# Entry
Amino acid sequence: MERAAPAWQDQVFEILKQGQVRQVAYVPDAGHAHLIRRVHADPQLRGIVLTTEEEGIAVSCGAWLGGERAVLLMQSSGVGNCINMLSLVENGRFPFLTLVTMRGEWAEFNPWQVPMAKAVRPCLEAMGVRVLCATRPEEVAETVQAGVDAAFGAGESVAVLLAQKLIGRKAWEGAQ
# Structure
């Protein structure tokens, strides 16, 4: 039996819909699972499964060229895959929005997640991406709304980092 999603996850979905986002590109991620299910259940939205995160940057830019808004959902470990492709956003002056679930911050069991968690913000900022962070449930809606406004209102490149504590402790199945 699936447990109910935290209210902030439904708020994120509603903000994206109200912000006229029509395409949602993602690499499957447990932290975004509820949002991904909601996207696929809504006939006005198109969920696009990616093989790697940098494809989502091309999808977002292509959506904009086609007259639609897109968002890229990824985990912090995927940010490193996107660094070179972010030059497309900057050079093409595309509005860009990504929602990043963080790993490697809080109660992390996997040491391989920690280095990228430390590098997410500086890497994104070095590529000209404005970074907004939500660490508590009551901050999420306002932070995501600010990201939507900055991306699609002001034409900025924005990443909203969703703290690992929001998603909860992840357990490695089979770990002792």
In short: The beta strands are 21-26, 46-49, 69-75, 96-101, 130-134, 157-162.
